[in-house]
Amino acid sequence: MMTRNRRRKTAIRAHQAETGSRYMVARRQLAEPTSPASAPVAEPPAGVEILPPLAAWNRPHDCRWWAETTAAHGPLMALTISRGDRWWELDDLAREVAGALQDRPTQERGLWINHGRYYVTKREHLPGIAAALDAAGALSRLTVRAVPDAAHCEHANCRRRRGEPPVQRAESAGPAEAPPAVVFGPMPSLAEIMEQHRLLSYFGFGVFPSIGQTYAQYRVELAAERARLAEHEESVQEIAIWLHDNVRPIMKPTIGSYTMKHVVENAIGRHVSNGELIAAALIAGYPYRGDHPNADFGMSARDVDRLRKAARTA
To answer: Where do the structural domains in the chain lie, given as residue ranges?
Structure first.
């Protein structure tokens, strides 16, 4: 005696031989319920407009449910009756036409499935529901939407489930080159940068703290370090131009100023102070973070690594 499992496998093998499809495809095809014969869908009654499906109903994981429900019950629609006076009465009128009143036994109840704000039922009930609501003077409160044609959707998972080949996408010439996330603007002068950043000095942001230093002494030392930085304007401008030409800007500040100062020193062959590097990077327009004594700048790590390797092999 052949078991049910063996009968199922035999049917799959027979379908596979008939269609020439793979075993898993044949199994999925046999698992799909077949659509019952139904009469052609009539035009909607006067005063009723069938709106398109909601976009959320077209998601891939919903398609199987739509396909199986349509296959089991025939053409469907989704309807809702706006809330307000007599809503329960109007809802019962619509349910009665669909044979879905809640006082009927479950096995005898017609299709009436809640789907968000809408109820899914057979499309053939639309004329009767519209007539019942029109007689109650409430046809304007009825909203009807079509349901997705899940049997012909283009989702890759759905096509695979139906045993159809994937959609061939047109080959493109490649993505267009995206503009950089940060674009350099016009370079301000060192004086403008120092005016914007009142703690910027030759040392960096602020000065090196000394034990027992008073605030007045700190201000004197800061003024001296700022004057020293101002004397190196030509050097700062040279570094700013070099950074502009060799290191691309990025949005996220990740490269420390003290680290970058050594990279620049190895590249241009002379001493660069932390303050000079910070001032040059601010002039060039790199995004930055931090203000004592170092700063992090939005510089391409790939470019920085390239410069480091070039310095090691030089």
So the answer is: 41-161, 190-313
